[in-house]
From TrEMBL:
Name of the protein: Urea ABC transporter permease subunit UrtC
GO molecular function, one term: branched-chain amino acid transmembrane transporter activity
Source organism of this protein record: Klebsiella michiganensis
Transmembrane spans: 12-32, 68-90, 97-115, 145-166
Keywords, alphabetical: Cell membrane, Membrane, Transmembrane, Transmembrane helix
Lineage: Bacteria, Pseudomonadati, Pseudomonadota, Gammaproteobacteria, Enterobacterales
Pfam families: BPD_transp_2
Keyword Nuclease: no
Length: 175
């Protein structure tokens, strides 16, 4: 539903069909997944890295053992990619179906990157074996209920921000 709000703003208000939302959500998901993998591995390497005979974590895993840093990465990494891609796309005046094709190509390039074992993202299997989140068992009913409530609150916040954006001067320019 959060993706639907984003698509409504970009496609519904601005009239630009973006097929690239998948890469932005994947980047945020992988940032949180890196934190969860570090929690599951303890002081060692995640299981898939040990299987591939890696001796140390890649540089971009730095700091992912901290929840606050991982949450910051969830927002900053997709935001940075959107800023760079948007700057080039709009500076080049890409619009219409070409914008859609470029955003789909961006998503496909991200998929190819994530599916390679040597990039440090778990390859085709992705990240597996999560057991805890902030010290709570992910299989516990109470943890799942808390995650559900957090997701509902995030959706409500997203709807509210989307509404405020649509009612602002900037939002009126989009239509």
């Amino acid at each position: 539903a959060i993706v639907a709000v984003a698509l409504e703003l970009v496609w519904g208000y601005a009239g630009m069909l973006s097929l690239g939302h998948g890469i932005f959500f994947a980047l945020g998901g992988y940032a949180m997944g890196m934190y969860l993998m570090r929690q599951a591995a303890g002081d060692g390497l995640p299981a898939f890295m040990s299987f591939l005979s890696w001796s140390e974590l890649p540089w971009f895993w730095w700091g992912t053992q901290h929840f606050a840093w991982a949450m910051l990465l969830v927002v900053l990494v997709p935001g940075l990619l959107a800023l760079v891609f948007g700057w080039f796309a709009f500076r080049s005046k890409i619009k219409g179906v070409y914008f859609s094709i470029m955003t789909q190509a961006l998503t496909y390039a991200g998929m190819l990157l994530f599916f390679r074992n040597e990039t440090g993202f778990g390859g085709n299997n992705g990240f597996t074996g999560f057991t805890t989140l902030l010290g709570f068992s992910v299989t516990a009913i109470s943890t799942r209920a808390a995650l559900f409530m957090a997701t509902v609150l995030l959706l409500l916040l997203t709807l509210w921000i989307g509404y405020l954006l649509a009612q602002s001067k900037f939002g009126r320019v989009l239509t």
